[in-house]
Design brief:
Elements (H helix, E strand, L loop, with lengths): L2 H13 L3 E5 L29 H6 L1 H18 L4 H11 L5 E4 L5 H5 L4 E3 L2 E8 L5 E3 L19 E5 L8 H12 L3 E5 L11 H7 L3 E6 L12 E4 L2 H13 L1
Parallel strand pairs: 1-2, 1-7, 2-3, 7-8, 8-9
Antiparallel strand pairs: 4-5, 4-6
The structure holds adenosine-5-diphosphoribose.
């Protein structure tokens, strides 16, 4: 990736009236959380079919063991990395309106980002499928699986979107409106393989905005869609970019 491209991206972001960041699993890889696709991807080791809501309700114990192994044990040790911190710094400096993330790890908020749209929900909350009560996941012990609802003993589910579940309509609507009103969409760590989240950069582009992409590997966005493709690790690239923007 050329320094010229980085300077060019910084210039565009410096002049931007309204910038959003659209992030995915790649921004958390340097926090020790594996991506879903590509090298070491979760879906190369586990069957995504098991994270379909009907399967979960039929096999709660089996799926809860996977949920603990893939998400809770990994995230318990994960800390925000320089990429998350760089986006929080950009927001604090008034140069980033919001993060629209597909991630469910809560690391953007842990890094200090204030306006975060969680397109796919979060592992940090759980909901009882019987009494519908929400709980902070930090208050739920995973020593017994599936963990019983503290209120009614029913089946708890992490509050993230399982396959075949709908996206939270308010998040979808507000994120789409924000993307429409942005003049720059900064893609970080996602290949946009999953819809409708993956179309967020297209909404900004269709409204006349610019798309800047930071990804470690080429994606469907990289050639023919992104205006600038900065290939590299987010934990290295984003702090450099933010230093150039904030001077
Ligand atoms: N720095 C920057 N980008 C990285 C890094 C890194 N260190 N490591 C990997 N990447 C990039 C890869 O280039 C890839 O484009 O992150 C992306 C990871 O892609 P996915 O694993 O498909 O993650 P994501 O796009 O967020 O997946 C979308 O799929 O399974 C569903 O709900 C799940 O939210 C998830 C959705």
């Amino acid at each position: 990736m050329s320094n010229h491209a980085l300077q060019n991206a910084a210039e565009i972001l410096r002049k931007s009236r309204c910038t959003i960041a659209f992030t995915g699993a790649g921004i958390s890889v340097e926090s020790g959380i594996p991506p879903f696709r590509g090298p070491g991807g979760v879906w190369s080791k586990y069957d995504p079919e098991k994270f379909e809501k009907g399967y979960f309700k039929r096999h709660p114990e089996e799926v809860w063991h996977l949920l603990k192994e893939i998400f809770y044990d990994t995230q318990a040790r994960a800390k925000p990395n320089p990429a998350h911190l760089a986006l929080a710094e950009l927001e604090a400096a008034g140069r980033l309106a919001a993060v629209i993330t597909q991630n469910i790890d809560g690391l953007h908020q842990a890094a200090g980002s204030k306006t975060v749209y969680e397109y796919h929900g979060s592992t940090r909350r759980m909901q009882c499928l019987d009494c519908r009560t929400f709980f902070d996941a930090a208050t739920i012990s995973l020593d017994i699986l599936p963990p019983p609802c503290p209120h009614c003993g029913g089946l708890l589910k992490p509050d993230f979107v399982f396959f075949s579940e709908a996206i939270d309509f308010d998040v979808h609507r507000e994120a789409t409106e924000l993307a429409k009103g942005s003049d720059v969409c900064l893609i970080v760590g996602t290949g946009g393989e999953v819809m409708p989240a993956g179309r967020i950069p297209l909404v900004t582009r269709n409204a006349g905005g610019t798309v800047i992409e930071i990804n470690r590997f080429e994606t469907r966005y990289s050639y023919g869609f992104s205006d600038i493709f900065l290939q590299g690790k987010a934990g290295t690239m984003l702090p450099k970019l933010v230093d150039l923007i904030l001077g």
